[in-house]
Specification:
40% of the residues lie in helices and 11% in strands. It has 70 residues and is an alpha+beta fold. A two-stranded antiparallel sheet has the order 1-2. The protein is elongated and about 50 Å long. The two termini are 13 Å apart.
Length: 70
């Protein structure tokens, strides 16, 4: 299972923003995805880690044919 920020409709965002105003807090929306990790060679893993370091984020390789929940 992998979580990421949700894809929301304009209506969903409006409801979240109203609740944020009422609460005085910022809310983040996450959705879960069933994924299978992709197998990477040592060279591919090195390239992924290099890009992660360059852009300051974490990257996850998954099998695109096995992603559910979009």
């Amino acid at each position: 299972m992998l979580s990421s920020l949700s894809k929301l409709t304009a209506e969903d965002l409006a409801e979240i923003r109203k609740l944020e105003q009422d609460l005085g807090k910022t809310l983040l929306s996450f959705s879960g995805y069933d994924v299978i990790a992709g197998n990477l060679s040592d060279d591919e893993l090195l390239r992924v880690r290099k890009l992660e370091k360059k852009i300051g984020t974490a990257l996850v390789a998954v099998d695109p044919a096995r992603v559910k929940g979009e």
